[in-house]
Design a protein that fits this description.
single chain, alpha+beta, Heat Shock Protein 90, 5-stranded mixed sheet, two-stranded antiparallel ribbon, 6 helices, HATPase_C_sf, kinase, transferase, HATPase_dom, Sig_transdc_His_kin_sub2_dim/P
């Protein structure tokens, strides 16, 4: 419903005879993508017949396939490689921010990574990390006396890459600020590698329920 309302509002701008600023329309589309990423979670939970956790890998497939359909890439041949560990279940507090993170990183790759190129590849990997010390000291304090499971999410592409001086902490773009805030919400850590394209590595821990 919210996505449809955003689309109707965007149509008003498209209908203006002298409207040439695509920035507003792009902002509407990006907002729709973020809403859809959350809506898909609710759909998956509904199909789960009342379960309060989400099997995240099938959801991630649906989310990324939707993004590939959303963005027009011209003649660019962009392939997708997904390596997702099965039976990883997250509750809403984890699934929503993690879905939004993937939405931002993949859509950025689709929009910018392959400009001027005929082909490319986007890779997404999600797996359990090694057991041991939790990712964040904040997270560790919160669940003192409880075990935890570490996870690693990697989103990468072999595109044109990011400028050498780019910094996640100092970026003024909304998408980057959103990713940084969401990783912090998960009490996780994010690393950026700029070799042969772009690679984001997000590490976070989930306390075990007892």
């Amino acid at each position: 419903m919210i996505s449809s309302l955003l689309d109707l509002q965007a149509e008003k701008f498209r209908a203006r005879e002298h409207f040439k600023d695509l920035e507003v329309l792009n902002a509407f589309r990006e907002s729709q993508d973020r809403v859809i990423s959350i809506a898909l979670i609710h759909e998956e939970l509904h199909e789960g017949k009342g379960k309060d956790t989400l099997n995240f890998s099938p959801y991630l497939h649906r989310l990324v396939e939707n993004l590939f359909q959303t963005y027009t890439l011209g003649n660019a041949d962009i392939s997708l490689n997904m390596d997702l560990e099965e039976n990883i279940f997250f509750d809403m507090d984890t699934a929503v921010p993690l879905g939004l993170i993937v939405n931002e990183l993949v859509s950025n790759s689709l929009k910018y990574a392959f400009q001027g190129r005929d082909k490319g590849i986007i890779k997404i990997r999600l797996n359990r990390g090694e057991n041991g010390k939790t990712v964040s000291s904040k997270h560790e304090n919160r669940k003192e006396g409880y075990g935890s499971t570490n996870f690693i999410l990697t989103v990468s592409d072999n595109g044109v890459g990011i400028s050498e001086g780019f910094s996640m902490e100092d970026s003024d773009t909304l998408g980057t600020q959103l990713v940084t805030a969401l990783v912090d919400q998960l009490d996780g850590k994010i690393d950026l590698k700029k070799d042969s394209g772009t690679e984001f590595i997000i590490r976070f821990s989930i306390p075990e329920k007892k």
